[in-house]
Amino acid sequence: MADSLKHSASSSSSALSSQHPRLLQAHDLLRKAEKLTKLSLFNWSSDWVAATPLYEQAATAFKLAKVPDTAKLCYEKAATGQERLSSPWTAGKHMESAGQLAKELGLIDEAVDSYRRASELFLHCGKVQPSADVLSRGARAVEDERSEIAVRMYLDACAMLEEDGREQMAFDNYRAAVNLYVKLNRFKDAAAVLVRWGQSADKCHATQSQCKAYLSAVIVHLYDEDLKQAQQCYNDCSQVNAFSRSDQSETAEKLLSAYCEGNPDEIRHVVSSSHIITHLDHTIVRLAKQLPKGDVKAASVVEPGDDELNEEDLT
Question: Is Ribosomal protein one of the keywords UniProt gives this record (predicted)?
């Protein structure tokens, strides 16, 4: 990292120092910090107490002077310093700043690593919510370039919050993961996340969110032209009393009955006339409005309630 700092600082200095007086100060701060941390014949130990604030000031100066590559490296050095000084919270903030700059520079894998490291540092000082939040911000930053990694980051944030008994705080992350899977045409994965979301909602007694998630999962399976899986999903979710007695369950049953009858007009009527569907997330409403897909009459008919219940799917 020291060599990278030296190279980056040298290249930015010659190109921009005459245009940005702040760069002269930034390079001076960086040189002082590097002198304090670089071991030599005359310097046998690193002075991170003195060097860390210099790296922080240099990072800010380089960022303001629009030299993001050097600013990123300085933030990473500042994070190292704060970690050595037993301040993981501040170290995490610096790593998140490094992640933002890495994204700006198109260094997507480095951005992922920085956001994950920031999350670890926040968690190290017992800050579960900020740890999950930085994973979410990281996922949003990289989801266009690293979709699979972004989904994993969203779901890791969910798991972190659930382990801390903060299930309701995970809902936005579930929503983001579902939206991303739908965008990728990974409908079975989207439905699975919706079921998991419903289970999480059950734990914090968020009955309305739970029922919406289960109905949404059925709709996603129908959009995926998988009537059998939609029916199985409905049967499994109906084992939960709160859902089986809900308006969402009734709507799902109407949809499935129309499918089993092979009646596309009735499917469209159920969707267009349902105030329950209109209150689902926008992504799910958009899918529902496109039902039915495929040849409904040729679809495999599965009568509601015929499939064997599977309790393991909801545990």
Answer: no
Q: What sign does the dihedral 40-43-45-49 (CA atoms) show?
A: negative
What is the CATH T-level fold of the domain 180-315, as seen in this structure? 1.25.40
Three-class HEC string of 299-313: CCCCCCCCCCCCHHH
**Annotated domain spans of the chain:** 180-315
- Global pTM value: 0.86
pLDDT tens for 94-125 read 999 999 999 999 999 999 999 999 999 999 99
Could you tell me what percentage of the chain is helix, strand and coil, using 3-state DSSP and rounding each to the nearest 5? 75, 0, 25
Cis bond upstream, residue 292 (ω within 30): yes
Short-list 200, 204, 197, 158, CA closest to 283: 197
Query: What is the spatial distance between Cα 100 and Cα 112, in angstroms, rounded to a whole number?
Result: 10
